């Protein structure tokens, strides 16, 4: 094959939908193409075209417009125009750069679709569908055990014991069945759970008679999981609740038991084990030693093809456990808190979208019963926790958005004043605070303090269109790194030259969009995925566009996780700066689709809110 034809073949092989063609079909295809060069300003499709064709843009740029003159689409490298093959004459355009195109006769296209079912499906799929496929777990990258259902891994029928039976009978049953736990029932109802640990600590250590009722040492109303829930949810539940046994229910009835050992056998590194070790640690040095295992955990979860959303939630759950343990250690040194408080995490930890070595973002919301003499207690508490997090690999926030800053260690009434001021007078600094403190989640203490604050905040934001307009304007500062004609816009500085910032220019725009929907619709979720799903449920975000945005979120987060895995394997600290040459041609195209989708939604919100921004 001639060099020119080889180049065309390789180009097609890197772009959907031609990437799914068999080698034989791909070898023949370049011979069927007509090459056209159109100067800037040429009508598109060209008036002198001899036959209807599929247009494949090799280089350059084309603007397509509807019959009323409004912009319909912009085509860049690798894009297709098949309107003439689909009898679509309502769209016409013009080349806005010198452009090189490949033309495939519509009859040849029809033959190609008949010859390859995979190509036919891919050709029929729009950008949203291609992005959805790209966001799905990658075959061959490892088995994503956490995408299985809880019912799939329950290893045996439930071992149950009537609540009126004795502790001795419970121990005998567990020994005979060779299990580490038994479910306690009252008729058809699950009443409790007894584990080996309960026998040791609640019976033997206390000198309780083994003939006492089993219910006297059981954990009443244990946390359960539905059999249809993913194992990822089971793992997160175990991590958050610090439990090692989860009864599995199917249609409300006991169906089995899922244990940490079951998960460990199939998954290896486990967030639950780290959280358990954290809970047992007796000081900051021990905690720091445990947290050195976090990068390896993230690496193993990534290699196991675990969905990025679950990796983010797992890392956040471990940070939650670390924060709680530090607060417990602080209280053991300082004594009980003089008044109720809640420690709340913001930023990526608050949204449960964290990766290792993330900066700290947190706040202390204290009861209004706080006295001036109590302030030093909470200042010392906050310093201890913030210093402990830093020692464990979570660096101080560069903007000092931490509870150790007296500004963010205040009674509830002051926090109400902060939020009211930010909403009523949305200055740039206030909008910067919004990106952290509108994403707060309770970690330790009295959650009702944060809940009451968030309820009033959402009532205010939902009714304040001017604030939402300002928030939208601030969010539009975070544009995807995509030029006007689908070219990547790279960072240009010494350390990260010619890279893409996947966090600030990829994920953050989606996070911002989700926050706007949440605050404008009164949605109390703080997790980005949950916010978008809630916006779809309320009708504020169309189901097709919303689903595509969820796919874009998962795809970009997946690229980030894989990039950080490469950093960890090479002995570097994980970062967010992706060299584009590490992407395949298909990944580059999918990433452009994702960025293009974000741009489209940003434009929609800009049009919705900016016209009446100051009215």
UniProtKB/TrEMBL annotation:
InterPro entries registered for this protein in UniProt: CBS_dom (IPR000644), CBS_dom_sf (IPR046342), cNMP-bd_dom (IPR000595), cNMP-bd_dom_sf (IPR018490), Diverse_CBS-Domain (IPR051257), DUF294_put_nucleoTrafse_sb-bd (IPR018821), GlnD_Uridyltrans_N (IPR005105), RmlC-like_jellyroll (IPR014710)
Keywords assigned: CBS domain
Gene3D superfamilies assigned: CBS-domain, Jelly Rolls
Signal peptide interval: none
Pfam families in alphabetical order: CBS (PF00571), DUF294 (PF03445), DUF294_C (PF10335)
PROSITE patterns attached to this UniProt entry: CBS (PS51371)
Transmembrane segments: none
GO function term, MF aspect, one: [protein-PII] uridylyltransferase activity
PANTHER family: CBS DOMAIN-CONTAINING PROTEIN, CBS DOMAIN-CONTAINING PROTEIN CBSX3, MITOCHONDRIAL
Descriptive protein name: Cyclic nucleotide-binding/CBS domain-containing protein
Protein's organism: Thiohalobacter thiocyanaticus
């Amino acid at each position: 094959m001639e060099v020119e034809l080889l180049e065309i073949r390789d180009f097609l092989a890197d772009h959907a939908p031609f990437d799914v063609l068999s080698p034989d079909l791909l070898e023949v295809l370049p011979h069927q193409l007509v090459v056209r060069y159109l100067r800037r300003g040429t009508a598109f499709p060209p008036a002198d075209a001899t036959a209807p064709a599929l247009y494949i843009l090799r280089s350059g740029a084309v603007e397509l417009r509807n019959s009323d003159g409004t912009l319909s689409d912009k085509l860049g490298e690798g894009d297709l125009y098949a309107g003439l093959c689909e009898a679509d004459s309502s769209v016409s355009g013009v080349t806005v750069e010198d452009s090189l195109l490949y033309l495939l006769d519509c009859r040849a296209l029809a033959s190609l679709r008949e010859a390859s079912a995979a190509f036919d499906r891919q050709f029929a799929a729009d950008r949203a569908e291609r992005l959805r496929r790209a966001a799905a777990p990658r075959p061959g990258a490892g088995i994503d055990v956490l995408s299985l259902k809880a019912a799939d891994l329950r290893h045996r029928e439930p071992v149950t014991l009537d609540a009126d039976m004795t502790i001795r009978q419970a121990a005998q049953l567990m020994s005979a069945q060779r299990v580490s736990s038994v479910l306690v029932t009252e008729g058809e109802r699950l009443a409790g759970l007894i584990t080996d640990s309960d026998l040791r600590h609640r019976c033997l250590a206390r000198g309780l008679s083994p003939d006492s009722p089993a219910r006297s040492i059981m954990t009443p109303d244990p946390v359960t999981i539905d059999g249809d829930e993913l194992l990822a949810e089971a793992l997160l539940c175990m991590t958050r609740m610090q439990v090692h046994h989860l009864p599995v229910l199917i249609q409300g009835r006991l169906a089995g038991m899922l244990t940490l050992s079951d998960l460990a056998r199939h998954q290896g590194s486990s967030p639950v084990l780290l959280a358990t070790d954290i809970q047992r640690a007796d000081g900051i040095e021990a905690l720091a030693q445990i947290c050195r295992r976090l990068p390896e955990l993230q690496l193993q979860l990534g290699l196991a093809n675990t969905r990025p959303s679950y990796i983010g939630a797992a890392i956040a759950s471990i940070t939650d456990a670390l924060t709680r343990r530090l607060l417990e250690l602080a209280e053991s040194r300082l004594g009980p808190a003089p008044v109720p408080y809640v420690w709340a995490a913001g930023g990526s930890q608050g949204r449960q979208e964290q990766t290792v070595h993330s900066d700290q973002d947190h706040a202390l919301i204290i009861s209004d019963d706080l006295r001036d003499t109590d302030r030093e207690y909470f200042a010392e508490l906050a310093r201890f926790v913030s210093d402990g997090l830093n020692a464990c690999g979570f660096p101080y926030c560069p903007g000092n958005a931490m509870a150790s800053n007296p500004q963010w260690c205040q009674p509830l009434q002051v926090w109400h004043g902060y939020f009211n001021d930010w909403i009523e007078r949305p200055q740039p600094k206030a909008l910067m605070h919004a990106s952290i403190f509108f994403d707060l989640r309770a970690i330790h203490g009295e959650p009702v303090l944060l809940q009451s604050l968030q309820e009033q905040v959402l009532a205010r934001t939902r009714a304040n269109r001017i604030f939402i307009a300002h928030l939208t304007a601030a969010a539009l500062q975070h544009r995807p790194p995509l030029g006007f004609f689908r070219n990547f816009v790279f960072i240009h500085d010494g350390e990260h030259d010619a890279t893409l910032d996947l966090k600030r220019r990829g994920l953050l725009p989606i996070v911002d969009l989700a926050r706007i929907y949440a605050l404008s619709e009164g949605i109390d979720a703080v997790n980005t995925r949950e916010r978008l799903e809630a916006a779809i449920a309320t009708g504020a975000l169309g189901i097709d566009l919303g689903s595509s945005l969820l796919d874009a979120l998962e795809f970009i987060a997946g690229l980030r996780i894989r990039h950080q895995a490469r950093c960890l394997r090479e002995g570097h600290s994980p970062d967010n700066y992706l060299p584009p040459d590490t992407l395949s041609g298909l990944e580059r195209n999918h990433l452009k689709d994702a960025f293009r989708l974000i741009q489209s939604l940003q434009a929609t919100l800009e049009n919705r809110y900016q016209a009446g921004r100051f009215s």
